[in-house]
Amino acid sequence: MPEVKVVVAHSERATLRVGDVFLKVDADQARTDVEVAAMAMAPIPTPKVLWRKPPVLALAAVPGTALGRLGEPSTASPAAWAAAGAAVRKLHDAPLPPWTGRSVDELATDLDAECEWLLANDVLPTDLVTRNRRVAEAALRPWTPAFVHGDLQICHVFLDGDEVTGVIDWSEAARGDALYDLAILTLGHEERLADLLAGYGTDVDVDVIRGWWSLRSLLAIRWLVEHGFDPAAPGCEIDVLRARM
């Protein structure tokens, strides 16, 4: 008898695993609409949609093992990271989805609000916020839109050996900055960026990727705290910010 395992659960959404089936329950059906549409468009392996009955989406498990997890060293080989980079490049070269993501102006407004909250509530030292706010400026520039995953965490990319077998969790997919995906995939694993770029196959502005590391971490901390996660865990968002010092 398969067990019911809680993969993630908070006030916005929950994911359960029963055998080889994932059941995703989302309060916002627009996110599920995006996920289903993005998986249908993506030119790389994605989970098979088994059925959908709002608010539940049933997906088949993808084979293989996650590239790694935030806060833990990745044991994947350089070739596996390069394969992940090649898959991300294939996605970024694909035709754009019809919907857009957050604009530069929206991100800048959100960043101002989150930095103000971090300081007003003494969550982080002033110098840590100020330094990373400055680093984040590199990401706040015009970009050529690409088909981006939008939440390309290291645990969302699965491989069998050095072959990508699936990329999961597409609810944030949109038109956006290609370097954002590269930054999220290497968040907390900065030492693997060169391996990823070896497969991605093009010159990138590493200062912009560093900017996204800071920007994403500053934007995420309040949400993580309010939803029961710990951004101060070793190797996670606050350590990413400290690395910029």
UniProtKB/TrEMBL annotation:
Domain Aminoglycoside phosphotransferase: 37-202
InterPro entries: AGP_Transferase (IPR051678), Aminoglycoside_PTrfase (IPR002575), Kinase-like_dom_sf (IPR011009)
A Pfam family recorded for this sequence: APH
Protein name as it appears in the record: Phosphotransferase family protein
